[in-house]
């Protein structure tokens, strides 16, 4: 479904991603972990097409197409979805209005029927159950005045409405209380099928008790420094990242690339 | 050598002479004649405002001066027929049976309808008002006494050409639910026509009403609208006042509105500026009685080649008055907006609560805004705030919408709408809201086609 080859990306002239390689097949659940600032969100945003990030090397193939050539909105219609680590507030645009537009854009793209506001309301009501979100959030402006946890839930609600093929959830668990974490994790599990793939970015092993990954990747200084199964997360929980980042630096310097690790 | 301004002034003088010789109806009433003469005299002294004047620094009216617009009364021509169907496009459904229609400045009773209004409310042209006692007295008491023509050449000119204006009187204690629309239409069939709309609204004690004042044209020619609206709110009166300026983008629109607020009265107004090549609105709200409150909203949406200027004065003269002003602007193409808002809190106006905000959204690199909110406080124990902002669409917000599959153009449009929504949402007449939704949407279509 997705193949990332030697991906390098910079923001504001600083190289953040320094050669990422990653293959994701449909039906798979991947977890990406790694220290603060290692480039997890950058990777997610590059995949979603954020204009501030410049890809300087490498390629990304999504369902046989060159993903990097597609504009953001086209990627989304092709099934890529990123749940933001920090969801954006959009004043003056209601959640329901926004979600219906997004939903209809996707329907149009697929040649399927668009929904009018009333029809969409029913769909939204049904999907909102998945994350146990109150209907009163639908008439409010997108994320405006939402609590941290409410914003995260709203991201998963959007995912439930748009039914992406590849979902990248950037720290959706942080900011959620214990009950909300379970609800959201449940929702993500329900949305995960043999036909789609999910990447969860997280700092906490706790989430992976609910969402069990097939693969765990550890990002350090813009590269994947370690990969393994779900047991790798447990090991990280125990030992921290130190042992990996050190190994990664040593590894990098033998390649003749200089990497600054803080 | 005679300057353009002098020449143009001269042609208005000639038009005035013609009117003196041939005028009829209200123009022949002695006190109105005196008012008009003294206004003409003032206009001759003031002339047209020049960019050297602080208040007109950013708005150059040379094009209006040069074009030599003349009123219908001076040309002896008649307006083109305006069909009901044409009219429907400019009538708000809520006011279908409560509208006065003026074409090129003159009342057209065959196009007007007042059957939807309750008994007691008076909405008539000056000629009718002058024919019945209490109303002719009211007219005499207030006409030309609210707005000051002494320092604004355009206002003086309007006053000099008073003829077929509208008088609206909402009697004591009457609550009028149905909005009344005053529609000023330009027929645009005669070149270089000037219209001088004039309105006097008197909301008596504890009455309440909604008035929609709107400006449209059936053609796309160049013409000149110079409007003056005077509003008096007696104690406890409540008025909702919408002003929708959607003139042809080839036209010029100059207007002066003033509202005097009585004790514990409430004035809520929204000024919408969409049309005209050049528009200027002077708005004053004067609170010279305790406990008055006003909400003064505005929305200007302009594009290529348009210029809009709002100069407002909100004057707190007595204690415990409240004013909230929010003006938002959306500028596209090569366009320019000016916002100059003065809020005065006079000596002794304790307990004043005043805030003023002007925010602008620039959709193009060629759009330009000059904004100057000013707060002048001469009293203690007041709560005042003001601010201005000029910005562009937020890149992260755009990315967020696009990352959900919304096309880039639609995303921009949605954010633009989101910007305007704060003003739109407070409008209580549903069809004005719809009109604005579409105005924002049409901008998108224009861009897609371009
Ligand atoms: N727009 C930007 N401008 C400048 N620096 C940026 C920008 N975006 C990211 N960075 C830098 O890139 C590096 C990687 O950031 P990123 O957000 O990808 O880290 P992360 O792995 O998601 O961290 P966290 O675990 O804290 O979320 C950081 O050093 C960050 O400061
Ligand atoms: Mg991050």
What is the strand and helix layout of this fold?
The complex is a heterodimer of chains A (about 260) and B (about 450).
Chain A: E1 2-11, E2 14-24, E3 29-33, H1 40-48, E4 53-62, E5 65-66, H2 72-77, E6 80-83, E7 90-94, H3 95-110, H4 117-130, E8 141-142, H5 148-162, E9 166-170, H6 178-191, E10 197-201, H7 205-210, E11 215-220, E12 223-228, H8 231-239, H9 242-254
Parallel strand pairs in A: 3-10, 3-11, 6-9, 9-10
Antiparallel strand pairs in A: 1-2, 1-4, 4-5, 7-8, 11-12
Chain B: H1 4-22, H2 30-46, H3 62-67, E1 70-71, H4 72-75, H5 84-88, E2 99-103, E3 106-107, E4 122-125, H6 126-130, H7 133-142, H8 153-160, E5 166-170, E6 180-186, E7 193-195, E8 198-203, E9 208-217, E10 223-233, E11 238-245, E12 252-261, E13 266-273, E14 278-287, E15 293-302, E16 307-316, E17 322-331, E18 336-345, E19 353-362, E20 368-377, E21 383-391, H9 395-402, H10 408-424, H11 430-449
Parallel strand pairs in B: 1-7, 2-6, 5-8, 6-9, 7-10, 8-10, 9-11, 10-12, 11-13, 12-14, 13-15, 14-16, 15-17, 16-18, 17-19, 18-20, 19-21
Antiparallel strand pairs in B: 2-3, 4-5
The structure holds adenosine-5'-triphosphate and magnesium ion.
Kindly describe this structure.
- The complex is a heterodimer of chains A (262) and B (450).
- With 262 residues, chain A is α/β, with parallel strands linked by helices.
- Chain A has helices at residues 40-48, 72-77, 95-110, 117-130, 148-162, 178-191, 205-210, 231-239, 242-254, and strands at 2-11, 14-24, 29-33, 53-62, 65-66, 80-83, 90-94, 141-142, 166-170, 197-201, 215-220, 223-228.
- Mean pLDDT of chain A is 88; it is low at 252-262.
- Chain B is an alpha/beta fold.
- Chain B folds into 2 domains: 2-289, no CATH class; 400-450, no CATH class.
- In chain B, helix 2 (30-46) runs antiparallel to helix 8.
- The radius of gyration of chain B is 21 Å and the shape is globular.
- Bound molecules: adenosine-5'-triphosphate and magnesium ion.
- The site of magnesium ion (MG) has 5 residues of chain A, from helix 1.
């Amino acid at each position: 479904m997705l193949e990332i080859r030697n991906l390098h990306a910079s923001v504001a002239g600083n190289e953040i991603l320094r050669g990422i390689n990653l293959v994701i097949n449909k039906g798979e659940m991947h977890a990406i972990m790694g220290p603060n600032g290692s480039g997890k969100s950058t990777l997610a945003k590059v995949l979603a097409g954020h204009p501030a990030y410049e890809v300087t090397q490498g390629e990304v193939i999504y369902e046989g197409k060159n993903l990097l050539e597609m504009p953001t909105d086209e990627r989304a219609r092709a099934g890529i979805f990123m749940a933001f680590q920090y969801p954006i507030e959009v004043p003056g645009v209601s959640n329901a209005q926004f979600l219906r537009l997004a939903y209809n854009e996707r329907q149009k793209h697929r040649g399927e029927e668009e929904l009018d506001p009333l029809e969409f309301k029913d769909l939204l009501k049904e999907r909102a159950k998945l994350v146990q979100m109150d209907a009163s959030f639908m008439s409010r402006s997108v994320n405006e005045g939402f609590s941290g946890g409410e914003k995260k839930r709203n991201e998963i609600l959007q995912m439930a409405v748009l039914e992406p093929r590849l979902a990248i959830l950037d720290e959706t668990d942080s900011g959620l209380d214990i009950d909300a974490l379970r609800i959201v994790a449940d929702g993500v599990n329900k949305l995960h099928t043999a036909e789609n793939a999910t990447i969860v970015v997280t700092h906490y092993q706790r989430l992976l008790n609910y969402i069990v990954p097939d693969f765990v990747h550890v990002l350090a200084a813009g590269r994947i420094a370690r990969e393994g199964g779900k047991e790798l997360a447990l090991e990280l929980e125990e030992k921290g990242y130190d042992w990996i980042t050190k190994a990664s630096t040593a590894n990098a310097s033998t390649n003749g690339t200089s990497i600054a690790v803080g | 050598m005679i300057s353009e301004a002098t020449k143009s002034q001269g042609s208005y003088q000639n038009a005035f002479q013609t009117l003196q010789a041939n005028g009829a109806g209200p123009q022949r009433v002695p006190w109105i004649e005196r008012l008009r003469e003294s206004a003409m005299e003032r206009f001759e002294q003031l002339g047209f405002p020049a960019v050297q004047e602080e208040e007109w620094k950013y708005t150059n009216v040379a094009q209006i001066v040069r074009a030599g617009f003349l009123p219908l009364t001076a040309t002896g021509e008649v307006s083109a027929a305006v069909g009901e169907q044409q009219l429907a496009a400019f009538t708000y459904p809520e006011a279908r049976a409560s509208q006065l229609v003026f074409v090129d400045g003159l009342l057209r009773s065959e196009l007007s309808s007042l059957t939807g209004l309750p008994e007691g409310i008076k909405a008539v042209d000056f000629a009718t008002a002058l024919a019945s006692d209490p109303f002719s007295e009211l007219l005499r008491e207030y006409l030309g006494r609210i707005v000051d023509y002494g320092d604004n050449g355009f206002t003086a000119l309007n006053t000099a050409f008073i003829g077929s204006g509208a008088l609206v009187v909402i009697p004591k204690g009457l609550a009028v639910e149905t909005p009344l629309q005053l529609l000023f239409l330009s027929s645009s069939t005669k070149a270089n026509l000037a219209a001088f709309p004039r309105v006097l609204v008197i909301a008596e004690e504890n009455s309440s009403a909604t008035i929609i004042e709107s400006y449209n044209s059936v053609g796309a020619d160049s013409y000149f609208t110079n409007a003056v609206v005077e509003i008096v709110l007696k104690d406890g009166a409540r008025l909702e006042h919408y002003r929708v300026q959607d003139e042809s983008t080839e036209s010029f629109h100059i207007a002066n509105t003033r509202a005097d607020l009585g004790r514990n009265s409430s004035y809520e107004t929204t000024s919408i500026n969409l049309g005209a090549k050049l528009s200027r609105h002077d708005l004053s709200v004067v609170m010279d009685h305790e406990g008055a409150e006003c909400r003064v909203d505005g929305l200007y949406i302009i594009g290529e080649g348009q210029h809009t200027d709002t100069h407002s004065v909100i004057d707190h003269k007595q204690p415990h008055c409240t004013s909230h002003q929010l003006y938002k602007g959306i500028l596209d193409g090569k366009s320019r907006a000016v916002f100059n808002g003065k809020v005065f809190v006079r000596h002794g106006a304790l307990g004043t609560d005043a805030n003023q905000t002007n925010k602008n959204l620039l959709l193009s690199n060629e759009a330009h805004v000059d904004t100057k909110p000013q707060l002048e406080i001469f009293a203690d124990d007041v709560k005042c705030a003001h601010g201005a902002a000029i910005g562009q669409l937020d890149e992260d917000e755009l990315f967020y919408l696009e990352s959900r599959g919304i096309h880039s153009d639609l995303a921009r449009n949605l954010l633009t709408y989101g910007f305007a929504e704060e003003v739109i949402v407070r409008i209580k007449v549903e069809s004005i809201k719809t009109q604005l939704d579409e105005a924002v949407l049409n901008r998108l279509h224009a861009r897609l086609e371009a």
